[in-house]
Specification:
Strand content: 5-15%
CATH architecture of one domain: 3-Layer(aba) Sandwich
Number of helices: 23
Structural class: mainly alpha
Oligomer: single chain
CATH superfamily of one domain: HUPs
CATH class of one domain: Alpha Beta
Bound molecules: glutamic acid
Strand order of the largest sheet: 1-2-3
Helix content: 40-55%
CATH topology of one domain: Rossmann fold
Shape: elongated
């Protein structure tokens, strides 16, 4: 037995399967030409990132537009970072946003022919390929302790050399087999390192689906493949997984660009076909005139939970992310206002590789548009579902009379210039509260220009002349008459020109009625509101006022 075979047996005697076994078990997928197989590989840290969704949309679109497959793989190799319930959190977040997986980890049980889809359950698979690398002389055990590595680093700093485990610094690279045996027998912990033949001065070319051909320095570091507990690092795990799961496109954040040379080196060494890497730009925001990265600490909108709690419709988030992802999406939407979002043809070519700007104001705008295009009946259902969880009291009011609630959703939405009053469920809850006697309250002040006496007089005359059978114009004419009678200008511009001649204008007079009826100085059409809340509730509010 040669040294490498002996070493492989020593380290991985318990591994009985060969790589061929797995190659056969997970054959090439039988898919049409050009079909994309993609995935997301979130780590269960308890925080689901907007970036996870951003990347998921890309992978999902590429896969499903091409008749390929899309799956969810849980990358749980870092037990230290994992928190209880985190896997369920990722799954439910993706489910909430309507990301459709064909296979992978799922709440109802994992499914698919390329599993297991949780890395910790794949230990033997990784070790099988690790064994193969040891046999080929491409991997070796390293016994260096944290302390030794730290000292090495300090020395490298003082000598102004590159950090890391390479060349003469790679102390365990050529340990004699006997020494390895003894140290293992003595129970010394070790990691498994890759033996790199790369040279920093060499350049490699890697094609990136978003960035085009990249020229990178070859990897020359003996990086870690398996940690001391036999669990792989991300580098090794994803290479084995994406190969065996037959991934064609790896969509992930640009933070992985730095270690991309390691990844392609592994693909090449193992004789695997490289996938197309697609590195997405980091999400940025404007902050006081400068662009900066979204931060977990400062920006709640970075967490997916935020959108659910604030009550944004998941498709509004999709729709907005597509505007960020593809420069031609907005134009398409303008031309196809009612088309289902999946009709849009997403392409990597239309993606920008520089920082993607997340603009919350723009997002809210998109959200208003999306809700405007949504039928009242659907808004009712989605809103009610949110309320049930986040505001049970208002839920009771809102669902008391479905017909009434659908009507209030639709106020002002159907004219030639429809109002875009609704942004999110949280905002809708505030916005619609005045329609219900139980949640109606005075929020704004009455206009200053109208004295207390005049206010009472306006109310008195308004109630006296009000007729439920008046149409909008007749109704408003009566307000104009009150305005003129009481010494206010019927045309606001007359008041502007001659402020001394009037007490105020028609807008002050309507504002008095508006505040009394809605509690606010800003509201949809008052005549419509009177008809919705009904004459008796209308009279009650004015009398109370
Ligand atoms: N587990 C990696 C992360 O959470 C996934 C990167 C990838 O998709 O390959 O960043």
């Amino acid at each position: 037995m040669n040294k490498n075979t002996e070493l492989a047996e020593l380290l991985f005697g318990h591994i009985t399967e060969s790589p061929e076994y797995y190659e056969n078990k997970y054959p090439e997928r039988n898919l049409p030409e050009g079909a994309v197989v993609s995935r997301i590989g979130p780590s269960p840290t308890g925080f689901v990132h907007l970036g996870n969704l951003y990347n998921a949309i890309i992978g999902e679109r590429l896969a499903h537009q091409s008749g390929g497959a899309f799956f969810l793989r849980v990358e749980d190799t870092d037990a230290k970072r994992e928190v209880e319930g985190a896997v369920e959190l990722v799954i439910s977040a993706m489910d909430f946003f309507g990301i459709k997986f064909d296979e992978g980890a799922a709440a109802s049980g994992d499914s698919g022919n390329y599993g297991p889809y949780r890395q910790r359950l794949r230990k033997e698979i990784y070790q099988c390929y690790a064994k193969k690398l040891v046999e080929a002389g491409m991997a070796y055990p390293c016994f260096c302790t944290e302390q030794e590595l730290k000292e090495m680093r300090e020395e490298q700093i003082s000598k102004k050399l590159n950090f890391g485990y390479y060349g003469e610094w790679a102390k365990c690279r050529d340990l004699p087999l006997d020494e390895i045996k003894t140290r293992i027998e003595n129970g010394e912990p070790y990691v498994l390192r890759f033996r790199s033949n790369g040279d920093e001065k060499n350049h490699i070319e890697v094609f990136d689906g978003i960035r085009g051909t990249l020229k990178l320095s070859e990897n020359y570091q003996d990086f870690v493949l398996l940690k001391s507990d036999g669990i792989p690092t991300y580098h090794f795990a994803h290479v084995i997984d994406d190969h065996l799961m037959r991934t064609t496109h790896v969509v992930r954040g640009e933070e992985w660009l730095a270690t991309l040379p390691i990844h392609v080196q592994l693909f090449d060494t193992l004789g695997f076909k490289r996938p197309i890497y697609c590195h997405t730009a980091v999400l940025m925001k404007m902050d006081g005139g400068t662009k900066r990265k979204l931060s977990k600490r400062k920006d709640p909108e970075l967490g997916l939970e935020y959108y659910r709690a604030e009550g944004y419709a998941p498709r509004a988030v999709w729709e907005y992310l597509l505007t960020v992802l593809n420069s031609n999406f907005e134009e398409w939407r303008a031309e196809n206002p009612d088309a289902p979002i999946d009709d849009f043809k997403f392409t990597l070519e239309k993606m920008s590789s520089s920082g993607a700007l997340f603009d919350i104001m723009k997002f809210e705008d998109v959200s208003r548009e999306v809700l405007l295009r949504t039928k009242a009946a659907d808004i009712y259902d989605e809103f009610a579902e949110w309320l049930k969880e986040y505001d049970p009291e208002f839920y009771t009011l809102f669902t008391r009379d479905r017909e009434y609630s659908e009507k209030i959703i639709d106020v002002g939405r159907n004219g030639a210039r429809p109002r875009k009053d609704l942004t999110s469920w949280k905002q809708a809850r505030e916005f619609l509260s005045f329609y219900f006697p139980e949640t109606f309250k005075l929020e704004d002040e009455y206009p200053e220009r109208v004295s207390d006496e005049d206010r009472k007089e306006i109310f008195r005359r308004y109630l006296e002349t009000f007729d439920i059978n008046d149409d909008n114009q007749q109704w408003f004419q009566k307000i104009r008459d009150i305005t003129a009678d009481m010494g206010y200008a019927v045309k606001p511009k007359d008041f502007k020109k001659n402020p001394d001649m009037y007490k105020g204008s028609v807008s002050d007079v309507s504002s008095v009625i508006r505040v009394a009826l809605t509690g606010r100085t800003n509201s949809p059409d008052l005549w419509e509101i009177c008809h919705i809340i009904g004459e008796s509730e209308m009279r009650r509010r004015i009398e109370n006022a």
